[in-house]
Amino acid sequence: MAEDNSMISPEELELIHQRTLRRFDSIVPTSGREGEEISSDIFKGRTLAIYTSGGDSQGMNSAVRSITRMAIYCGCKVYLIYEGYEGMIEGGDFIKEATWNTVSDIIQQGGTIIGSARSSEFRTREGRLKAATNLINRGIGRLVCIGGDGSLTGANTFRLEWTDLVQELVRTDRVTPAMAKKIPYIQIVGLVGSIDNDFCGTDMTIGTDSALQRIISSIDAVVATAQSHQRAFVIEVCQIFRKIKANKNKLFQVMGRHCGYLALVAALASEADFCFIPEWPAPENWRDVLCDKLSQMRSEGQRLNIIIVAEGAIDRDGKPITAEDVKTAVKNKLKYDTRVTILGHVQRGGAPSAFDRLLGCRMGAEAVFALMEMTEESEPCVISIDGNVMVRVPLTKCVERTQMVQKAMADKDWDTAVALRGRSFQRNLDTYKLLTKMRTVEKDNLSGGHKFNVAVINVGAPAGGMNAAVRSYVRMALYHQCTVFGIEDSFEGLANGSFKQFKWSDVTNWAMYGGSFLGTQKSLPTAETMPKIAEQLKKHNIQALLLVGGFEAYHSTILLAEARDKFPEFCIPMCVIPCTISNNVPGTMVSLGSDTAINEICQMIDKIKQSATGTKRRVFIVETMGGYCGYLATLSAISSGADNAYIFEEPFTVQDLSDDVDVILSKMEVGAKRYLVVRNEWADKNLTTDFVQNLFNSEGKKQFTTRVNVLGHVQQGGSPTPFDRNMGTKLAARALEFLLIQLKENLTGDNKVIAKTPHTATLLGLKGRKVVFTPVQDLKKETDFEHRLPTEQWWLALRPLLRVLARHRSTVESSAVLESVQEEDADTHMF
């Protein structure tokens, strides 16, 4: 994006958003049934079919598996339609009944095992007549369509024509009246499978997160060579490919049709210097603005430049901007070694991310319930994720809203186009523009003319996203004309005076790295160290403090806030950003680092499962970290297709283990002849991992063998995922804004800051779609300090889904209190 000074203020954005909602009917979701009690065979005798259509996306197989198994669990007959609408038209072996084992071992595979195709014949009436004939012959009146807006629109057209199609089939003797009477109407449920995330009505589409991971890993891979040769890289995000002669500054070409989501979020995650997206066109003089920006970054010591161009990028006059245009501009004016990289279909390929696997599982299960509860009058719906809750939204309204975005862009109504994309898109855009500006626009300066001293510290175990949060905080603080200090080695470093004053260039490329460059430890402030901490805060005149870390960061802030009466130096605004792979901090539904950890775990489990492919009758026990919190164990088990997960929150006994042995023995007779269980490290002090292995070996006798894999600290490593990078970036920016507001509110006449109220020591967390600052002292009542756990955890409601999809025939029970969804701008990629 261009560095222009016309960024819309939050107040102006809200007015635009509200005006847009008044102009168009809003999409009202209906709550789903996730977490409710569901017994087996409740829909016995009913039939449904599943097909994937249009472009494939990672996570489709997860959805196919979930729909198939949940439907079979509920007593339904399930058909898989191969090759999309083409298979529906062809019939025969293109429509096959599915069994439980049909979808075994597919959750980790990219693409779609049932094939996908764009069908020109289905657009004709004769093609739809053939499709209707095949469905009627098999008694299929319920369809789950997994695809983009075009596929879902085609399904709705098919539904609207059904009565006329059936009458014509009867009239021409292609089906009998008796057969037609059995399927008087069809019902449609859609799941949006698209890497573009361009469908209005859902916060994330199946495949988007995986595509982002593929884009970011590709960009990370070229950073080293770019730094070595001081190159510029131009990355184009597109589907319409043009032949581009390679030169030497590097352009990346990325898919995304005329939606800038992939390009924008990739720009945030990769610290791109410039980003062109269709929803927010560059100024007419973009060549000059671009080259000035790149030159400025080089003068600051940066050795490479990354420019991302979305497909459909244009300037304010509507003139197209291509990767070739950008390369030529940089080469001609700056003489930089510039190269173009076209990522192409690599973005669709590879194993799906853990989030896309989980999203497919959750959406697929909800699709079954939505489909079975429909009546003849029911409108077709799309299963969406709203905040972190599965909901059902009207298909037609979603398609209309999606088309409105394209119309707004065609009319050059950019503000409306951005507003229709949603608050999260706008927040991404605003954060990106702020972080790439090096000069403060006075009207945007939140310091109010003051020169505040602010600091940031990492506390707890390292986790993905820590460095991204620090980078964002530092640059936002510098942008608002603050002096920024980084405190090294947690509270030990703070007590010893290990302060580092940051410059803008000091945090370049921090977002792409895991761990903590500041250094982090699990130590808490103690009675002995508090006087030293107070002394150092006073010495450096620290007026606000951001703590990025896990349970220790949260606990430390409580201790500092409660010691304010004794130490005036602690009477400053403080804020905690939860960052821990364990996701065990109250006040938030998800912590930074947990997404990266789950992806690391899933990748390792995929390898373990592959190892078992050639070794039949093998049971694997995988031990994860997390302390007493079973979040990692549960979500990695669901995302990897594991058979069970043992956790502290759901006590288990020796009898439960013995019952599992019976399940293992039955599974060894059919299917994959493999069993995989994930165990949280502190699930039970007596029923340890070794105990479980010994029991399985003893009970299994010669029927199967058991192996243990303790994953250990590898779960804390790896390159942070795009979600952890972007969420760390946005949360830190929000925290800095909040701290600056509190600094001005608590500034005394002699220019001192005195902040004593509970609302000046907060934790910044995600609840539903809302970013919430909660006083840490208010969160004490929601905390089990002995076990370092929140008293309520939303993800426990997903435990029944794990049991059902793994063929545990137990009743699905509600296990947790779900947070309500509120309209806000938080990213909703939840783990």
CATH architecture of the largest domain: 3-Layer(aba) Sandwich
The helix tally amounts to 24
Question: Roughly how many Å is the radius of gyration?
Answer: 27 Å
> What general outline do the C-alpha atoms trace?
globular
Low-confidence region ranges: 1-10, 12-25, 239-249, 810-825
Q: Major sheet: order of its strands?
A: 1-13-12-6-5-2-3-4
Structural class estimated from helices and strands: alpha/beta
| CATH level 3 topology of the largest domain | Rossmann fold
GO molecular function, one term: ATP binding
Catalytic activity: beta-D-fructose 6-phosphate + ATP = beta-D-fructose 1,6-bisphosphate + ADP + H(+)
EC number: 2.7.1.11
Enzyme class: transferase
Any overview of this molecule?
This protein is α/β, with parallel strands linked by helices and 831 residues long. It has four domains: 46-205 and 352-403, Rossmann fold; 208-347, Rossmann fold (3-Layer(aba) Sandwich); 442-591 and 721-791, Rossmann fold (3-Layer(aba) Sandwich), CATH 3.40.50.450; 597-716, Phosphofructokinase domain (Rossmann fold), CATH 3.40.50.460. 39% of the residues lie in helices and 16% in strands. The protein is built from 24 helices and 26 strands. An eight-stranded mixed β-sheet has the order 1-13-12-6-5-2-3-4, with helices on both faces. The protein has a seven-stranded mixed β-sheet with strand order 16-15-14-17-18-23-24, with helices on both faces. Strand 17, helix 18 and strand 18 form a beta-alpha-beta unit. Helix 8 packs across helix 23 (722-745) and helix 9 (286-299) crosses helix 10. The protein starts with 9 loop residues before the first helix and ends in a 26-residue tail after the last helix. Residues 1-10, 12-25, 239-249 and 810-825 have low confidence and may be disordered. Its EC number is 2.7.1.11. Residues 453-831 are annotated as: C-terminal regulatory PFK domain 2. This is ATP-dependent 6-phosphofructokinase. The active site is at 196 (proton acceptor). Substrate binds at residues 194-196, 231, 255-257, 311, 339, 345-348.
